């Protein structure tokens, strides 16, 4: 009999009591545990026992739950090259879920997890992991992972943040079309048609509500109608409760903010969908997370990704000789391209910014997301020159590129650098003729990876690029090793 997928809310109020009791140092630990029996039986036992003398919540959890696998944080290499280490790591980080268990959503094919506390597949991480798998010749594993994501789209209508039931309220940056493009490079353009259905379904997910938004009701889920009639997208989450994997952190933040808790929870969850969890780019004051306003922001990177998705659908319709569909989608491409320029490009500052649609102004936050239009060939020579010049003067650090120019203690702010943004920036500058800057970005980042590997035998989730001798920090959990997308970008940059 197939194992039943557990929704952590089915264990309420036990779930909240465990998190509030701080039994585990990481809020994610308990929600990754597997119940040994049904939630109904566990809750009945809990209600009967919890007020009895000598009751121990820790003992109860031990009796009724199987703990999640511990991350293989001791995996390191001292006697092999970095390339050999990564090639060996692919198998270490590969999982097969079979029927699944607890909150883990089963997947039909093998997949690569990031590592550390991240015991499941993650959506946007996987694209950058696949780049490395491509460099390592592991096309079989790429195809398995793309098929898993297609399966998730067919099952849920979208790709969740990760294959956990507690991630089913949100997605992550939509890289599925780029993943399919990797397979196109390896197997030919007919691959696009193979995933047509899933590409269309994912697009419908992101555009859900576009037909009902109006001047008086300009938003629905991830869609925003702007004042000139343009439609662009934002990050969102269908839930407005504390994230189960960060229950304590979210509850404390809502209390500190003094705002309606459900509003804070929604903004926090939307930032988690962005992958930039967390960063000053989402904060109204640019400093403190209690001012988070994610759902009020039109992100430049998200809209570039969706424009590429629209281009992929155009290509499919052209290949399959459906001119009416192609023309219709091509108009969407042109409209989004124009809207990105209108709302996200600042000619005076020569840089791309996120747009605060409620205030009808740019957020003014300088972030590395500004390189996405260059990566997708949307920037004019003047625009790409402006971004390249500013990045060279302000974002380049000895160890790579910082994500923002702001020090907040959040992990997606200075002084940290992240593999996916190094890759996007490197390719963006290369495509737009800023070759010297591209190679500077690549060289600084790879040397940082190599230096830390030489000292520790490990690859890390993120790095302190301002001071490569110091450890990266910030955020809700310690820096993790493994690490899927860092391995992938390094191998792809290595060529």
Query: What's the overall average pLDDT, rounded?
Result: 95
The rounded distance between the terminal residues' Cα atoms is 46 Å
Main sheet record = 3 strands, antiparallel
Radius of gyration, in Å, reads 22 Å
Please tally the helical runs, counting DSSP H or I stretches of 4 or more residues.
19
Q: Given the helix and strand composition, which structural class is it? A: mainly alpha
Assign a percent range to the helix content. 40-55%
Major sheet: arrangement of strands: 5-6-7
Quaternary structure type? single chain
Pick out the low-confidence regions. none
Total number of strands: 16
Beta-strand percentage range:
5-15%
Shape: globular
Describe the structure.
The model has no long low-confidence stretch (mean pLDDT 95). Among the domains are: 8-66, no CATH class; 368-495, no CATH class. Helices cover 47% and strands 7% of the residues. 49% of the residues are buried. With 495 residues, it is mainly alpha-helical. The chain contains 19 helices and 16 strands. β5 (219-220) and β6 (223-225) form a beta hairpin.
Which key phrases capture this entry?
mainly alpha, 3-stranded antiparallel β-sheet, 16 strands, 495 residues, 47% helix
Summarize the structure in short.
With 495 residues, the chain is mostly helical. It has helices at 14-20, 27-31, 39-49, 57-64, 82-92, 123-135, 139-156, 176-187, 190-194, 196-206, 247-257, 261-274, 300-319, 323-344, 372-375, 381-394, 419-431, 435-456, 484-494, and strands at residues 34-35, 65-66, 94-95, 111-112, 219-220, 223-225, 231-233, 297-298, 345-346, 351-352, 355-356, 361-362, 396-397, 400-401, 416-417, 463-464.
